[in-house]
Amino acid sequence: MKLILSAAALVGAVAHLAVAQVAVLHLQVIEGEGAVNAAGSHNTRPLTVEVTDETGRPVEGASVTFHLPEEGPGGTFGNGLRTDVTVTDARGRANLHSMLLNRTPGRFAIRIVASKEQARAGMVSFQYVAEPKAGTAPATSSKSGPSLLHGPLKWVVLGALAAGAGTAGVLLAGRSGSAVVPAPAPTSTQPAPATITIGSPSLSVGKP
Length: 208
Description:
mainly beta
């Protein structure tokens, strides 16, 4: 009878061990999903995952591996590699604390795998490398100088000295916003000097 009970206990223990080895793990991201990272930055914001069993209880001591893409948007972890491994704590959580982002903008996937004995679970978490901010060139004016019609000058002097006349030009008052028309140069109106001609004297003598 004792032998039979011992055999039954042994079978139960083996069955329990088999169940424990094929237990299902559940993996989920607690913090860091969808994070947007500056291009070329050193991100120290943690990516936190939680590992639980089929009953929802946290799994301590599970190994969690993080993988970054080999090309495109992404980067490297604090160890300088694209793969890092950590272990869950008593709450079933594992943290990834350091990541150096490259300068390729876009979305990238972090593959995460959790394992404990024979149980495994995997998922993909997405983050982003932001577009670099382009510098804005300062605005420049296309005007080369003040306009005669709309400039800030209140008075505009137009005209020139008349050639050989010594006459000053005409000063025009041209207010801002008004068209300025140059005045014609003055012309001389002096009459030509009169000419007097004296002919030869004539003398006539009649007969007596």
